[in-house]
Design a protein that fits this description.
Number of helices of chain A: 13
Order of helices and strands of chain A: HEEHEHEHEEHEHEHEHEHHEHHHEEEE
Helix content of chain A: 40-55%
Oligomer: heterodimer
Distance between the termini of chain A: 72 Å
Strand order of the largest sheet of chain A: 8-7-9-10-11-14-15
Helix content of chain B: over 70%
Number of strands of chain B: 2
Largest sheet of chain A: 7 strands, mixed
Shape of chain A: globular
Number of strands of chain A: 15
Strand order of the largest sheet of chain B: 1-2
Number of helices of chain B: 11
Structural class of chain B: mainly alpha
Chain lengths: 404, 293
Amino acid sequence: MKFGAGGRRWLVAVAAVAVLGTSACGGGAAQGGDASVTKDGVTTYKMGVAMALSGSQAALGQDFVTFVKYGVEDANKEYKKDGFQIDLVTEDTAGTADVGLKAFNKLASIEQAPVVFTAWSAVVKAMAPASKDVGVALINSGANSPELEGAGENLRNFFPLASNDVAAVSTYMAEHEKKKRAAIIHVDNATGQGAAEVYKKSFEKAGGEIVATESIRQDAVDASAQVAKVLAAKPDTIHVHALLGEAPVIFKALREQGSTVPLTTYAGLGEAVAVRTASGAAMDGLIYTTLANTSPEDPKIASLVERFKKEKNREPAGLSYDVYMYDSAFFFAELIKGIRAADKPVTGENILKAIDDTDSFPLPLQRSTEFTDTGIVRKQVILKKIGTTADNPARDKAIATIEP
Amino acid sequence: MDLLLQLAKNGAIIGLLYGLFAYGMSLIVSTTGVLHFAHGFTLVGSAYTFWWLFQGQDVHPVLAAALTLVVAGAIGVLIELGIYRPLRRRKAGEMTFLVASLAVLTLGQNFLVLLFGTDPKPTPPSEFMSWSVSFGPLLIRTFDVLVIAASLVAFVGLYLLQTKTAVGLSFRAVGDNPQRAETLGIRLQHTYVWVFLAGSVVAGLPAILLSVQNPVTPSMGFDLLVKAVIALVIGGIGSMPGALLGGVLIGLVESLAVYKLPTHWAEFTLFAVLFLFVVVRPNGLTRSRLRSA
């Protein structure tokens, strides 16, 4: 059978489409497999990291990647003696499920990374089924929706879920602050919905009543209707669980409508400098949860923050999250070390097995982490109170420490 | 009842903001026939300009606002001269104009990302913006007063421009029938530049108002653009008062819908109203029609 020039071009085009289609659909045979490269006796393993590098969540996502990069650089120095190093490969999720899924497919199919670290609940939820299909280990290192517990066979939650910290602040407000009528304003996605559910359950369990729950669209430019409805229910505390885009709108609307009701939130907002600047005095006195020690007195934390400030000329956006990001590189290095010691290839399957079979992982900033049978971690919750929003978040006063 | 009044006030204010944005867009659409989605970029570009002047360069807010309006007008004129005029010369179809407009919006947003990064750029609340006064159950803020004032200035200003000046009258003549206007001696290209200048300066107003209220992000224009297009459909595409009316109506629908319904139903209600208008009154509240570019 002979083909003319046009026919050959046609065949080449069909072949190219087939190759591209196979990779885009995640049909590569080696996905989740051992794609390591050995050169001069040092084996390199790819660490896939998918974060929000564009869109309204990028302020956090870009800092997350910077701290993972610091972690990888430091881990590579520490584990060089063990004969391996980590190669960081990043992709943008824009903090949304659809872009996140594309990022995951690229990391799994084209980069052949055996593990993907990611954040944002909607993104993790979208990636979870795909990770099972391609045999890649999916590690949540920054999302907190309680729905992520058991959301996928290949998913492990390296970051504590809202069932840990939101439950703690909810119970604290009911039992310690004697609040009886709580209201919730949450972003209308997996992050907000899950946290609202946890807050409600814990607050009611502690004897309180939820008098209003209102949602707000991600990146909304107005929250006056939500705030008016919530204030009309006369709550004695309000929990805000939103993201960077819409949070200042909520806090400002609360202040503008004359609210003096004590507010609570989580570290993603409490520590975010952009949210604090935009909200101004509206966040003064707010109580928020943190899941890591970010004290500037800790020399390791201080040195990392200094390194960041020298490079970026500003404070990091969400320091308690950054702790988990930095540690995630060492967590992966520990997994590689263990798998190599057992003389097995570093595949998605072996990574998951190593997580499940290991009691505790030593980490430089968190000291250690332990997974439960359901693939989550539970950490000490530190409640912090904002004095004035102009303060450095690291200087916010810790008002309570709640053990898991 | 107090809540209902407060929601109605909030809806009217945010509706005026939508209307203000739709108003400038409508002026351009009614005169040129181009569905100018790049108006979203004019808004975001202006918002970043104001933030950069006010926060970054410490320029007095009034001067920063005035300079922002100049930049807004310049963005609109550059889009007309650099994109639409060459397309018009090549007799491009409506779809090409639409795609070009969307491309300018997306490229412009990405350009801002390269220039300013993706992190939100906040304007710290000031004493002036924190002022408020209560009238019974109604709380009136500085922001509300500024939105009302800006809407009045834009409405009266554009009304006078369109009824009392030669260039404004040429907008209406060209919008009505460009060929006839040309035979009457109106220079079409000249009119298009003026209309993009005027419509884009109007977009600078909501940009300034939004940037003092919310952190500025590259994606902030899209939400307002969607609302502006809905306002145009409801008010009647190409109709000036219709745009403002449509904006206020969607603000009220969004806000009042949540009086009894959960807040996440607001958008559903809004789109249900839009659907109703498309089916029952496809030309909107007013009867203007969009002509082709």
